[in-house]
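Subject: Predicted fold for Kinesin-like protein, 406 residues

User T.R. writes:
Posting the sequence so we have a shared reference for the thread.
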Amino acid sequence: MTGTGKTYTMQGVPSSPGLIPLAIADIFDKAGYGSVISVSYLEIYNERVRDLLNPSTPSDALKLQEQADLVRVRGLRCIRVDSAPELLELIAKGDSARKTEGTEYNAVSSRSHAVLQIFFERAENNATSVLSLCDLAGSERAASDAERRKEGAYINRSLLALGTIISRLSSASSSQLPTSDGSSSSTHIPYRDSKLTRLLQHSLSGQALVSVICTIDPHATSKQSTGETLNTLRFAARAKNITITPARALSATNAATSVATTALIESLRLDLERERAETEIVKVELADVRKEAYERAIREREMWEREKRELELQRDALKDKVGQLTRMILASSSDKRSASASARSVSGSTAASVAASAAAPASESTPRTTRKSLAPTAAVASGGNEKEGGDRGEDEIQIFLPKQRV
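User M.O. replies:
I've generated the structure tokens; pasting them so everyone works from the same file.
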């Protein structure tokens, strides 16, 4: 019945993971080296298959066909995954494209059957295992809305086909085991009545391990809810009576494919090891080159610092020489100025002495005359001094003029 927690049981919440996240975590924990894991996710809505990982694919292009003892969907996208988070991300992407609508019994009701198939291939034993996780839509009574009523009719028809198969398998188990195709000599199993049962034929035929989780609403009190609960419990009782004999179905085609896959994986592994060895060699060579470049840089730096110190010493020596030359030039200029000044003073005193010696005899031999007779003498003396002594003529006049009597 809808609204009893089927989707919650399968998916759960982050704080309480459901069956799908727990199964995925266990698969990747136990996956060995060389294992190949791929996944497909589909829904059966109104008996039409939809690819949840590629919603743009038209339903008409998705056809059921049997391949290597398994019923596969031709045209369905199958993606290889390498980690559990990657797979959970794909499932979340598929859930966002799934058909859900509000009904009279559930605000968010799944309107389709969702089937998540995980393909697990092991290279060491050439075996391929398939884990099918199904989240079925709940059965409903006729709804008032025409679209919901149509969806409910398809859902109920597929669930009725599943119930019929479970009932016949349960009856057959009491007498004899079913054959490899899921049927016995006296019992016909109608797997083709529904796409859901056709897709799960290998799992339901008794050759696989099957777990069935039936959910009911313990708080349901209406007559309709009670009837749905009883039908669910009868279905669970029939499913419990089915005898299963798990067997490995490895056909020649599948074996050849597995061998080819194993050879390819081994070749890729050898290529990877060779690439890793070459990478290690390159790393060692690169480390040597880096070390050599570092040492060369250190040597060049030391050489540069040594040349710098030598240039600084040369600069200091040149500064000292320039200082010495500057002091010598200044001392030489000072000596020249002193010598020139001394020469001028000596020449001046010599000229004065010559003038004085020339004027002295003239003054002594000249008699004392009147003021008129003195003028020419003064003029002569003055003229002689102007020629010999330059600008000291007036002083000579004052010196050599005789005193007048009063």
